[in-house]
Amino acid sequence: MIEAENIEDQNGLRPDGRRALELRQIRVKMGVFGQADGSAYIEQGNTKILVTVYGPHQPRGSTGRNTSNISKGIVNCQYSMAVFSLSSGERKRKPRGDRKSQERSLQLKHAMEAIIHLEIYPRSQIDIYVEALQVDGSEYCASVNGATLALIDAGIPIKNYAIGCTVTLINNPSLEDEDNTLEKGVLDANYVEECTPGVTLSVVALPNNDSTSKDGLIVVAQGAGQRLHLSQFESLKARVLYGCQDIRSILDHAVREYLTEQSLPSLFHVALN
Amino acid sequence: MAETVLSSGEKIFILHGIDADFRNDGRRRCEYRSMEIETKLMPQTHGSARLHIGNTDILVGIKVELDVPHADKPNEGKLEFFVDCSATATPAFEGKGGDDLATEISNVLTAAYQTRNAFDLKTLCILPHKKCWKIYVDVLILQCGGNLFDAVGIAVKAALNSTEIPKITAATLDGGEPDIELSDDSYDCIQLDTSNYPIIITLCKIGDNYIVDPTLEEEMCSTSSIVMSMLPNGKISSVVKLGYGSIQFNTFTKMLQMGEIIGLRLNKTLMDVLKEENQFGRQRRIFGFLK
């Protein structure tokens, strides 16, 4: 269905006209729902994700019974995809419960546990529910970004933004002798690019505020597709951290804007930067 | 539907308000909250609509597929409803928690659209015995602030109204095998004739009176409610009673009469609004959840 020629180099541009390190347009809305403790909606290109956060509240259900660790809060994540979310035309049979969503839920949980100050919420539970409304590549990363925003909206203290970004190495032998900027991996792949022969790495990092001091910490990395040679890993890592840095500054701007809008008039001196 | 617990004092306050025909938010008994509808907001579907009423938020996506007709109904297409209560509405819906409510809603929808006066499945047939369209109506409940049934009914009708089925240019039988050609122009589509599609009205009995469009708090004061689906011509295609309370026959008839009047008005308003939105054409800006 997807032809390899589509991916071919067009003066170093990708099929949708982006450069290798260019992200898709990110649009954000925080506080979409009134009833949840925190909620956020994020669009990365055509990938559209809704996240709501409930809590912290008393643990309940199966997670509550597991009282092995009461000194820390419990994070409970559920990733579900709307049955009409797939861009490729077919319809999904079940919104959740399949292996892919369960894996995503677990990885989302790992990422969120890394940023929430769980030690200040003993004996409590924080629920994070992700609903993918439209899926067009990089949906796990978009949901991590959305979950971070929802946590901020809920007022839950976090250590840093958890930022997800994918990097895709497009294996295309015809590219070798030409301008090979695409060869070293492209950021924020859409569905067409994810389906190409090659490897896609989804990375969740905690990028630092000033890019000069440190690269940032990688919390979750997940690869899909073909095998990846270790020698290429370093350059991919550098690229993906660059992407995370970019996304972070976009989200940070959106958060500051939202909080200034929502704040009391007495707080108006809080400047946007 | 964040957990709301009402004390008996609060319940009595709501009850007295309804007795006086002046509800907590200033509405009368037969008034709806204002609604927001947007259609065609999901480009990957054949038709979609989002409805926002009070705190209730519904998203409907419609996908159309080619299928083989049922052996006992060779001239008819298929229409399937699927409701998903997302955990974003309330943590209680997590996992399989929302399945009961989802089944209840999809059963009401199926009953509402089952009659031939409402939805003629024959229009979905392409080649008898061989090919037909199958319409999947997928309802996603994102927030739940009371009056789910009405909201779902309106959203489904709006979504079906926006549905565009690809046009078939040629359908022939080639040696017993169906051969179907779709139009090359993706804008060349057929729209469904929604003039007879039902909407759903819930009448919620609180105390001695009955109200439409209850909020979550009002729903908690009610012991029984009637969910009726009504065609635009005033015919009732299904009636379901919910809740454990019982209803006198006289009250029941009165409730149906009130539902009929409200249903006709609601339907007309909805169709007018959808027509108005349609006039903006394809250049209309899509807001989605960003507004």
UniProtKB/TrEMBL annotation, chain A:
Subcellular location: Cytoplasm; Nucleus, Nucleolus
DNA repair in keyword set: no
GO annotation terms (biological process): nuclear mRNA surveillance; poly(A)-dependent snoRNA 3'-end processing; rRNA catabolic process; U4 snRNA 3'-end processing
GO MF terms held by the record: RNA binding
UniProt cross-references to Pfam families, sorted A to Z: RNase_PH
Keyword Zinc applies: no
Purpose of the protein: Non-catalytic component of the RNA exosome complex which has 3'->5' exoribonuclease activity and participates in a multitude of cellular RNA processing and degradation events.
Annotated family: Belongs to the RNase PH family.
Protein name: Putative exosome complex component RRP41
TrEMBL record, chain B:
Domain Exoribonuclease phosphorolytic: start-end pairs: 31-166, 196-259
GO biological process, one term: exonucleolytic trimming to generate mature 3'-end of 5.8S rRNA from tricistronic rRNA transcript (SSU-rRNA, 5.8S rRNA, LSU-rRNA)
Keywords linked to the UniProt accession: Cytoplasm, Exosome
Annotated compartments: Cytoplasm; Nucleus, Nucleolus
InterPro entries from the UniProt entry: ExoRNase_PH_dom1, ExoRNase_PH_dom2, ExoRNase_PH_dom2_sf, Exosome_comp_Rrp42_subfam, PNPase/RNase_PH_dom_sf, Ribosomal_Su5_D2-typ_SF
Pfam family, any one: RNase_PH_C
An example Gene Ontology molecular-function term: mRNA 3'-UTR AU-rich region binding
UniProt entry tagged with the keyword Cytoplasm: yes
Chain segments annotated as transmembrane: none
A cellular-component GO term for this protein: nucleolus
Superkingdom of origin organism: Eukaryota
The keyword Transmembrane helix is annotated on this UniProt entry: no
PANTHER family hit by this protein: EXOSOME COMPLEX COMPONENT RRP42, EXOSOME COMPLEX EXONUCLEASE RIBOSOMAL RNA PROCESSING PROTEIN
Family designation: Belongs to the RNase PH family.
Protein name, entry field: Ribosomal RNA-processing protein 42
